[in-house]
Amino acid sequence: MSKGLTSGPPGSPRAPATASPTRISLQVIVAVVAASTLVFGLSSYLSLEGERRVLVAQVDRQAHLVSETIKSSTRCDMLLNHHEHIHQVVDNISGQGEIDQVRIFNKRGKVVYAPESALEGRLIDAREDPCSICHAGWCV
Questions:
Q1: Under 8 Å between Cβ of 56 and 48
Q2: CB 3.0 to 4.6 Å from 94: which of 74, 82, 115, 116, for a disulfide?
Q3: What percent of the chain has pLDDT over 90?
Q4: How far is CA 30 from CA 27, 70, 124, in A?
Q5: Residues 6+ apart with CB under 8 A from 16
Q6: pTM here?
Q7: CA distance linking residue 4 with residue 131, whole number of Å
């Protein structure tokens, strides 16, 4: 009689014996590794996605703070039409290392003040770069 096979009555087909303990442990190990990989991957994805949302919200808050600071710094000068002082404020803020460019728009999207005079008077669509980064949620 060969190992791993059971014998029945003479002439009956032989049935395989139960799986060996090493084969069962290998299947369990593979299942545990697969489940662990799936859980680890899913938790990593969810953690990174949560961190991304937090960072985007923080950048949005900081951009809003800078925007409000610029508006409050130039409000009085705009009401009094002090163009020179507005340009000076915009130039000073634009000259900071972490701020690429400051432009002041009217309600229709026309550039009213910018460090580069060539941009002034240009109509900007909020769907264009770099506006689309912040305004993508409400643009039509």
A1: no
A2: 115
A3: 24
A4: 5, 59, 57
A5: 4, 5, 6
A6: 0.56
A7: 72
Please, which pLDDT band fits residue 6 given cuts at 50, 70 and 90? low
Most confident of 48-57, 66-75, 76-85, 130-139: 48-57
Cα–Cα distance, 17 to 2 (Å, whole number): 11
The per-residue b/e assignment along 83-120, b for 16 or more CB within 10 angstroms, e otherwise, is eeebbebbeebeeeeeeeebbbbeeeeebebbbeeeee
The token pair that represents 3 in the structure block: 């190992």
Structure tokens at 54: 């937090």
Q: Which residue has the higher pLDDT, 71 or 47?
A: 47
CA distances from 39 to 28, 43, 79 (A): 16, 6, 59
| Selection from 80, 133, 90 nearest residue 112 by Cα | 90
- Whether 50 contacts 43, CB under 8 Å: no
Residue 77: which of 92, 63, 65 has the closest Cα? 92
**Do the Cβ atoms of 6 and 14 come closer than 8 Å?**
yes
